[in-house]
């Protein structure tokens, strides 16, 4: 029988009124029920808070900031509040499959040598109504890295270094990896939204400065994979989402599967994007 240990789902929101219902619903609808959902709103100027407050579920705990402190200071705030023996990270515009947490907890309970695990994902290019599925394990520079919004880890007082330009990668590749191994479940159980307005954190977080370049290679080491990954970050900043999608599907992930949104909805009728 699978463990019933509590999982603290932590979400930092900012102006996510278009997405937040489906995001939080995908957390509430998990087949694994012993969860709490901790949400910190970073001073949204739209209806994000009002929408969250309309969700009447005792598992949701909403905190409201009067100023935007950024995503990683926000995650640290929520980590201080987390009561679960496990923590799961969710982005405010991404979607989980219902069985995601259940499969992760099963793996973690059966493999105590691992400190964390994640899953593969679909990239959803909302401007083109196309999803690209990773068929192979998630590829990034170095080891111990999984898609951030799929990450689940043991709650052992870990914190993000919010001063790092690549705080999520530093957290996984250094902070968590120093405490144990990270496993990737080779199944797509999350949907990462590539937004039409290019406001994804990944689009803006990496600025080309000497200190940032040094930090990148300190985290990822030197090697061919690191260099290719570095170049991809640069391209991400300058290419439109449509061009990025074409390059991803035709070059970088040409062996992967491209799915039209309507076909995806027909295949997964219980998933709302």
Can you walk through the features of this model?
The chain is α/β, with parallel strands linked by helices and 273 residues long. The chain has one domain (7-267): Alpha-Beta Complex (Spore Coat Polysaccharide Biosynthesis Protein SpsA, Chain A), CATH 3.90.550. Helices cover 35% and strands 23% of the residues. It has 10 helices and 10 strands. Strands 1, 2, 3, 4, 5, 6, 7, 8, 9 and 10 form a 10-stranded mixed β-sheet that branches. Strand 1, helix 1 and strand 2 form a beta-alpha-beta unit. The protein starts with 6 loop residues before the first strand and ends in a 6-residue tail after the last helix.
The pLDDT mean sits at 87
The N- to C-terminal Cα distance equals 31 Å
Low-confidence stretches: none
Major sheet size, sense and barrel closure = 10 strands, mixed
CATH third-level topology: Spore Coat Polysaccharide Biosynthesis Protein SpsA, Chain A
| Structural class by SSE content | alpha/beta
CATH architecture: Alpha-Beta Complex
SS strand fraction? 15-25%
- CATH homologous superfamily caption: Spore Coat Polysaccharide Biosynthesis Protein SpsA, Chain A
Rg over alpha carbons: 18 Å
In the CATH scheme, the class would be Alpha Beta
- Total helical elements: 10
- Total strands: the figure is 10
How would you spell out the order of helices and strands?
A: EHEHEHEEHEEEHEHHHHEH
Q: Shape from CA axes?
A: globular
When the domains are counted, the total is 1
The amount of helix comes to 25-40%
Short description:
The protein has ten helices and ten strands. The chain is of the alpha/beta class and 273 residues long.
């Amino acid at each position: 029988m699978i463990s019933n240990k509590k999982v603290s789902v932590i979400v930092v929101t900012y102006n996510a009124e278009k997405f937040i219902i489906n995001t939080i619903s995908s957390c509430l609808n998990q087949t694994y029920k012993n969860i709490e959902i901790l949400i910190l709103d970073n001073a949204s100027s739209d209806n994000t808070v009002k929408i969250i407050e309309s969700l009447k579920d005792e598992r949701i705990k909403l905190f409201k900031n009067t100023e935007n402190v950024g995503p990683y200071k926000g995650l640290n705030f929520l980590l201080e509040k987390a009561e679960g023996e496990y923590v799961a990270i969710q982005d405010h515009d991404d979607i989980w499959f219902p069985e995601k947490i259940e499969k992760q907890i099963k793996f973690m309970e059966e493999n105590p040598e691992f400190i964390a695990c994640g899953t593969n994902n679909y990239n959803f290019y909302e401007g083109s109504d196309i999803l690209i599925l990773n068929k192979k394990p998630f590829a990034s520079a170095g080891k111990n890295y999984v898609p951030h919004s799929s990450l689940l880890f043991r709650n052992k007082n870990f914190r993000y270094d919010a001063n790092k330009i690549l705080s999520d990668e530093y957290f996984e590749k250094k902070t968590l990896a120093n405490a144990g191994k990270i496993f990737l479940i080779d199944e797509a159980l999350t949907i990462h939204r590539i937004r039409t307005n290019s406001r994804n954190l990944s689009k803006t977080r990496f600025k080309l400065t000497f200190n940032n370049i040094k930090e990148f290679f300190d985290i990822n080491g030197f090697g061919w994979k690191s260099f290719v990954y570095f170049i991809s970050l640069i391209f991400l900043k300058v290419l439109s989402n449509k061009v990025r999608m074409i390059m991803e599907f035709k070059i970088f992930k040409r062996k992967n599967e491209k799915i039209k949104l309507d076909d995806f909805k027909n295949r997964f009728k219980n998933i709302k994007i």
